[in-house]
């Protein structure tokens, strides 16, 4: 069995713990899809649109 797969099946492995932490962050932030981006805690509405990032960054700089 592949080491990566084995690590994700072993609850005390570093990989398992990292995946669980990521799942909790996703759940707490209501993340349903990837990619999802946040800037200073604010969700970028369209992560594929440059203007979404630009507007949010400009608003944060002010």
Automatic annotation (TrEMBL):
SUPFAM superfamilies: Thioredoxin-like. Residues 11-59 form the Thioredoxin-like fold domain. The lineage of its organism: Bacteria, Bacillati, Bacillota, Bacilli, Bacillales. InterPro entries: Thioredoxin-like_fold, Thioredoxin-like_sf. This is Thioredoxin domain-containing protein. It comes from the Bacteria.
């Amino acid at each position: 069995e592949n080491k990566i797969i084995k690590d994700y099946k072993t609850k005390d492995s570093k990989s398992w713990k990292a995946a669980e932490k990521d799942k909790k962050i996703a759940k707490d932030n209501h993340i349903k899809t990837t990619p999802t981006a946040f800037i200073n805690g604010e969700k970028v509405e369209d992560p594929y649109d440059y203007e979404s990032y630009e507007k949010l960054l400009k608003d944060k700089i002010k």
